Structure formats: C-alpha cells, structure tokens
Amino acid sequence: MDKKNLLAVGLITLIITVWMIYMSVNQAPPPPPPPEKPVAEKKAEADSSTPVTKSTAESKQTKDSTESVDKFGGSFEKLATGTERIITIDNGLVVAQISTRGGTIKHWTLNKFKSWNKYPTDLVWTQMGELAIKFNSRETGREVDTRDLYYEFVGNVKDFYTLKGNDSVSITLKLEPQKGKTISRTYTFFAGKYHVNTDITVKNLEDIFTNKGYKLEWGNGLRYQEGNSVDESTDAEGLVSMNGEVFTLKASDYNPVQEQKTGIVDFIAVKTKYFTSAIIPKPAKSFDGIATLNGQKFGAPDNGAFEKYKMSLTMPYHGGEQTKSFQIFIGPIAYDIVHEYGLQAIVNFGWKWIVRPIGEFFMLPFFMLIYKFIGNFGISIIIFAIFMKIILHPLSITQMRSAQKMKEIAPVIADVREKYKDDSTKQNQEVMKIYSEYGINPAGGCLPLVLQMPILYALWAVLRTAIDLRQAPFAFWIHDLSLPDSILTLPFPIAGISHISGLALAMGITMFFQQKMTVTDPKQKAMVYMMPVMFTLMFSNFPSGLNLYYFMFNVLSIGQQVYINKYSKNKMTLAQMKRAPKKEGWLAKKMREAQDIAGKQGKSVPGAPRQTPQKGKTQSKKK
C-alpha cells in the first residue's frame, strides 16, 4: 500500500472512530425532578418546623403578601393561593390530566406506547404542567406565569371522564382577578384522538396586559422515552411552519439558541425521535403573530446529554374580549397520524429536495404495504430488501459488470505495476492505456453507486426513525427492531463501542465476502479486511431493523455477483474485451484531451492514456 492509500485509510479510520465515540453514549437522561408539593403542603411543613408566635405570623404574612403583590400585581395576587384540583380524561389513546393550578396539562400519557424501561409514556416533562399562559403586567412590569395562579372550573366538573365512540367533553377553567376581567380556557377532548382543542378568551384586561399581549407556551420539551438519550437527541428539535415553509431549530452545543418568526403560522412544534407536541392555530391561516423557539442542550456528554425545546405563540391584544383557538397535538410521529393534522413535515425523511420525496412517497408507503400483508416487521424488512434489490438491479448490474471486468484484467494490471514499480507516472499511464485497450471505464462502477445514494439514504432515514419498528420484536435474540441487537458485551470499550451487534457482525461478514469478490487492486487489499471490521463496530449502535436490511441486501448482492462471475452468458474473456467496440466515456475523453494538450507543451498528465500516433502525423517531442 503506497503512502496516499495508507493516508486515506488512516483518515477514514479516524473519522469513523470519532463518530463512533460520539454516538456510543447509551444512557438515559437524568430523571425528572420529584413532584412539586402543593403550596398548602409547603406552608404546613414550614409552619410545623418553626415555632410560631403571633408577631412572627403577622410579620411573615405581611412579607408574603408584599412579595406576592410585587410578583403578580394587586389584581392577580389573591389568585396565587388555593387548592389544586386535577381531573382525568381517558379517551382510549390518551390519559390526560388538567390542573386548576395554571389551567395546564399536567400529564399526557399514551396508552399504546411504553418507555424504554416499560413505564407508561408520559410526554409532559415538568411537574408544573404545559401550555402555560404568560403575560407582561402593567402593574408589576414583570412577566406573570399563570402556572403560579389558581383557576377554578366553570360549572359541574367530574374528577374522571372516560370517552368512547364519538364521545367528547369540554372543560372550562377561569381566572377572574376582578369582576368582569377574566382569562378563560376551554379544553375539548375527543375519544380516540391524540389532540385536544383549546380556546383562550381574554376579557377586559387592557389595563393589566401590556401592548405585548400574551403568549401560549410549551416550555420544557418532551420527556425522553428511549434508553439512549444521545440517539434520541439526534432527532430532537423545534420546528415552525410559516405559509408552508418549515424552519427548524437545533441546539448543537450547550449554548441557548433561539428562532423567532413573525407572520402567518401554520404550526409550531417540538419533537424527539418518536414523539411530538404541536400547537396548530385554528382555523388555518388565522394566526398572525410571533412564533418563538428556544433550545438548549443539558447534561454531560459522557453521562447522556439531552435537549429541551420551548415553543410559544405571542398573541397581540388590544382590549375588550378576544378569543383564540388552537388544536394541540401530542402524540407519536407516525406518518399516517401526523398527516391528518398537516404535520407531515415533522417526519424526518432527509434532504427535502431529493431524498425526502423518495422516502415520503415511495419508501414508507411501499414498506407499510408489505407489512399490511405480512404482519411481521422483520420479515417485511427482508421482503422489502428483495424488492429494493430488484428495483436497483439496472444500476447495480452495471457496477457489478464493471467489477467483473476489473477482476479479469487484474493480472495484466499487476504485471504493469511490477514492471514500472519505480516510475509511478509511467505506471499510471500504462494502466490507463490498458483500460482504454480493453474498453474499461475505471469510474464505471462509481456512477451507479452515486445514483443509488439518494435512494439508500432515504431508506436509512425511513428505517431509522420509523415508530412502527419501535419495540417491535422479530425472532431469536432480536426483541426490538429499533434498538441494537447486542449479543456480546465487550470487557472494555473499543473506540467507544461497548457491545457487538449480531446483525452488524453478520453484515460485516457479508461485506467482507462481497469486497473479496470485487476488490482486485492490490493497493486496496487492506481495505477488504479493515472496512468490515470498522463497519461492524460502527453499525453495532444502529437499530437492528436497519442492520437486518443491510445484511439481506449484502447477501443478495453476493448472490448477484456470483451469478455474474460464474454463470452469466454476458461474461467476456480478455480477448473478447479487447476486440469489442470501444465507447469512450466522458472521463476518459477529458483525460485524453488533457494529455494531448500537455503533450504539445512537452508535459505529461499522470493517469491519462498515451495515444498512439496515426500515420502521417508525429508526436510532439520535448525539445
């Protein structure tokens, strides 16, 4: 192996090693803080721990009252104390809890999904609840978070609701700082839906709200549900859609980041790998205001870093009575489900101009069609790999025939390299001359591979993030197609890898045999052994469903190559290759033209074929 190839192998090894170290952290985020105790309970604990005299109690009461007025203003100060009441709604898909403290969604638990440790999937991360209303107060000059205030239910409200069929229920909560001045919130739940409709009515608060109006905020991202927080963070982000154009926010480091847009908002959302929460103004195109996304990364990289995203919509308010309506979706990123809400942009299919259409309109529908008939995702992946091999046959056959021709002339190339081993320029010229004589394009196997890349990347995006594979078992030791299928725990980490995946190992073995059949250049011989090892390690952190596909695709490729090498009727001998009509490719043509120009100038171009002079013409010689 010469110095250039050795350097290339070294750089590839370094890049893959760094990537593996980055992706190998496999630890869940730190647990959420313990439930916050009600204000009354906190006060009781404080009172019981310290002897209270009459003067002490009066002094403390005066101090608390002053601080409360400074924080909330005289109008809302009386609403800062109260008794929290929580009601529960089970609509079949979701168990939601609404609290009078802040009028927020306290919990949102999905019945059909479990976290990595088999606990119920509750997507609300903060104990304070989500969907807070905040406003800037003229009385205090501060921002008031209504999660610190106590609403009251309007009308008779039960503690528990069960919704079935076409059932729905509306629940209204109200803050009334002064008579005739109110903030009202109505939640409408539907049976069998991952959303809740909410109406917010502000009435006669122009002397309390500043000109900035008020905002509806989801402030603490989504609770992580997977065992590998680094992998889940890879897909965590904030999104806002304005007139069909989607903008994203990613916290790539530990510094806070923000994205703010003003105009017509289609939706604003925060997401993790498999779940999302989105605020959708209703009716469509009715919201004209400020959409804000904030994000930040937390935790140490070696202890499982995680990301939190905050989203808010700021509504202008100019007085009187104003009602704004929203649809709040909180659920799985399953394409068919989010498409119903116009949220399909949340699904990660890759680059939107080429890769995304392939994944969205071909890969995913085709894969789900196969599953509809098979009923097992593992077998569906195998059948999908077979179909993909058939579809890509016109591209891969060109690549394989080129590899077969390269193998045929390998002995001739080896002789030339040995003959001119001390003259690399002459060696390259003679090699290119052989390519020309036998009608071989050295880049002939590259173009089909390049054309396949968008398809393969779209496939990677579909299988890596498909929630249908999450916690889906296959066979034997493969219990979850969305997770690595570990069969061996290493005694010590190797380049950040602590385990070996069974399917990644099988994929690496097939990769070795595949390269053994196609790589003929002695300079690349080391790659035949190095690349399978590196890819086995790297793919050991990939979902087993993705590795199952790659393994099957490699097996099919080996079978295809064996057929071409041994049984194909189109297999050509060296003599036939030499006699066959030659078609000069674009690359060979450009290299020949460069060689002609250099020859006239008394120079040479490494790697370009030397032309045989025609009768009546002479070659230019160096003077």
Provide structural commentary.
- There is one protein chain.
- The chain is 38% helix and 26% strand.
- Mean pLDDT is 79; it is low at 1-65 and 606-623.
- Helix 1 (3-23) packs parallel to helix 13, helix 8 (393-408) crosses helix 11 (446-465) and helix 9 packs antiparallel against helix 10.
- The chain has helices at 3-23, 39-49, 54-76, 229-234, 335-340, 355-374, 377-391, 393-408, 410-419, 424-437, 446-465, 502-518, 525-539, 544-566, 574-579, 586-600; strands at 86-90, 94-99, 105-114, 120-122, 132-137, 143-145, 152-153, 160-162, 168-178, 181-190, 195-203, 209-218, 237-242, 245-249, 257-271, 275-282, 288-298, 306-315, 321-332, 486-494, 497-501.
- Among the domains are: 39-49 and 79-347, Beta-galactosidase, Chain A, domain 5; 360-475 and 543-576, no CATH class.
- The protein is an alpha+beta fold and 623 residues long.
- It has 16 helices and 21 strands.
- A hairpin with a 5-residue loop joins strand 2 (94-99) and strand 3 (105-114).
- The strands form three sheets. Strands 5, 6, 7, 9, 10, 11, 12, 13, 14, 15, 16, 17, 18 and 19 form a 14-stranded antiparallel beta sheet that branches. Strands 4-3-2-1-8 form a five-stranded mixed beta sheet, with no helix packed on it.
- It starts with a helix and ends in a 23-residue tail after the last helix.
